[in-house]
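[agent] plan:
  1. take the single chain provided in the ticket
  2. run structure prediction with default settings
  3. attach structure tokens to the ticket
  4. add a short note for the reviewer (M.T.)
[agent] executing step 1
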Amino acid sequence: MFIRRSTYRRDPHGTRYANFRLVQSVRVQGRPRQKTLLNLGAGFDVPAEDWPRLCQLVETLATGGSLPPRAAPASLLQRARSLARQIVDFHGGPASDAPDLLLVDADSLRCERPRGVGLEHVALWALEQLGLPALLRSLGLSRQLRACALGAVIGRLAGVCSERATNRWLRSDSALGELLEVPFESLSHMQLYRASDALVRERKTIERQLFDSALALFDLQPTVTLYDLTNTYFEGDAKAQPLAQRGHSKEKRSDCPLLTLALVLDGSGFVRRSQVFAGNVQEATTLETMLDGLGAVRGSLVVMDRGIATEQTHPLRSCWRCSAVTGRWRAPTTIAATSPWERTPAASARVTVRPTPRR
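[agent] step 2 finished; step 3 output follows
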């Protein structure tokens, strides 16, 4: 068993990259051959002088052997155990026909690599009910990319805030890899970034499929209920992102480039559509784009705040004939919600406005 380093070119500029593989010498029909046990990727960072010792440790652990205390530095031993587990997962452990029965001192047992599985199991079941794994497969995503995409989604459900934190959570704290049968111990940040790019690229198809699945599961009727926007900011210039523009920040960070995020929720709280706009977009100008994408029918009730219901949106009355209900902070009262866009009896209603208590 040894580690082989290969170099190759990946771009037209001639930049050379290195890739590392864990290889074993075997004989096939009497001839020596090299069998790749694991692809270690381009980010393999163990120093070359430690490769022979690492290979010895991996071979001992993968074949069921035991190591004496302090057989190697802790970091090298940890890497060897991780590689040995991957080899056993991919190729199976040492075979044995006879049962190996031993007496074990219960006081000598210790818990190693404890990981959570409850939330992951429930979240994966919910995504399967919605058909997301099958949808990602039909979109042509590879097995590894599908696993990373599901890991990114479930990580958000677990309260993990970024791809970097998700990488750490999947590698160290979660048993999702065992449920998906994918070794997340060797997961890189770039794999999660590529999975997020794939989700954004197929966003419209995924949102439509998930919304239709939610309606079917809960026997709901589609309605357009709430449309609102917010924005977030970049730390840095973000010159490579054309939508990153300076504007009014709702987080009081107008000194940074912004992105505007738009969301349409159904009456039951399910996301119907999302969209990313430039950071300096005027909120009122985004309404027609979202309604056009939803295929909103005439007479649809669109709930929005006063930042969207402005004079700029009045021309929509000839296209959509939408009614609008807007509100501001005030005492509980009953108002006439008559849209300035639609002067018909069907567009008038009595609406009781009850403000949410401030905290």
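[agent] step 4 note for reviewer: Residues 2-92 form one domain.
[agent] ticket updated
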